[in-house]
Here is the input.
Amino acid sequence: MPSQRGTAALMRAGLILAAAILVVRIVLEQLGAPETVNNIFGVAWLYFVFPILFALRIATAGAPGPYKALLKDLFFFALYTRLMVMATYMLAYRFQWQAPRFGMEMGGNVGPEVTPLMGLLVIPTRNALIWVVAAILFGMILGGITLFAKRKSRPAAA
Here is the structure.
C-alpha cells in the first residue's frame, strides 16, 4: 500500500505541474511571446521525466509486476495530461486563438475551414489519442530501461 500512496502523490504532483505549465503557456501565447519561449512550456517535456520517476518509485517499492504498474501509471498520466491539453484546444477553437500550435498547418483546430464538430471534438480527440499512445510507448521505453537498470543494480547492492 505505501507504494500506491507514493505513486499517487507523484501522479498528483505531475498533474498539478502539467496544469501550471498549460496555464503559463496559454498566457504567454496570448501575450505574443516568441514560439521558442512557448515551446519551453509544453506538457510533452514531462513525458521525458515522469516515466523515469514512476519507474524509480515502483522499483524502490519492490512491488510485484513493476512493468504492469508502470504501464498503468503512464496510461493515467498521459490520459489526464492530454485531457487537459484537449480542453485548451477546445477553448482555442471557441475563442479562435491564433497561436501557431492551434493553426491547421500544425495539426490544430483553428481556421476558417474548421467546422464546430471538427474544432471541438474530432481534432482535439484525434490529437489526444495520438499523444496518449506516443507518451505510453515512449514512457515504457524510458521507464522500462530504468526498471531494468534498477533491477540489475539491486543484487550488487545487497
User: Anything to note?
Assistant: Residues 50 and 59 are 14 Å apart (CA to CA). The two ends are 24 Å apart (CA to CA). The mean pLDDT is 93. The chain is about 80% helix and 0% strand.
